[in-house]
Amino acid sequence: MSINIFEYASRKKLRFASTRGELSVEQLWDVPLRSRDDFNLNIIAKAASKAVKEATEESFVDSTRTALHVRLETTLEIVKSIIETKINDEDTAKKRADNKIERERLLAILAEKQAGKLSALSENELKKRIEALE
Fold it and tell me: For residue 104, what are the CA distances in angstroms to 52, 91, 112?
């Protein structure tokens, strides 16, 4: 396909079947990856995959792709692309959260070490540092 799948979707006004009705590409971004009910991207992708398989009649001689095939395959590719992007976003957010926790741990340890160094100062050194701050 020579054009971008999202451009194709907007030009052809593709819609995606879901348990809450047909959705536009923009609305797919708001659908969760996983959910307890049947409203999630996995269910939508399965339905799109099933539609592609049902529209494709097995032939060992002819391999003609109709406009319907292109439409259904593009629909599936869009859902898969959104799923991949959302999974990557989840992974990035988890890594960012893990890094934040690690940073906080390291800062706490650093503060303890610095406090330990201060408590090792003599009484005179502490008084001099206090006076310097005033």
Answer: 49, 20, 12
CA distance 37 to 40: 8
pLDDT digits (tens, 9 = 90+) for 62-101: 667 788 889 999 999 999 999 999 999 999 999 999 999 9
Contact 42, 33 (CB under 8 A): yes
DSSP one-letter code for 20:
T
Which residue from 69, 85, 106 is spatially nearest to 25, judged by alpha carbons? 85
Can you read off the two tokens belonging to residue 45?
């992708």
Burial class (CB in 10 A: 0-12, 13-18, 19+), 120: exposed
Q: What angle do CA 21, 72, 83 make, to 5 degrees?
A: 70
pTM value?
Answer: 0.75
pLDDT in tens, 98-126: 999 999 999 999 999 988 888 888 889 98
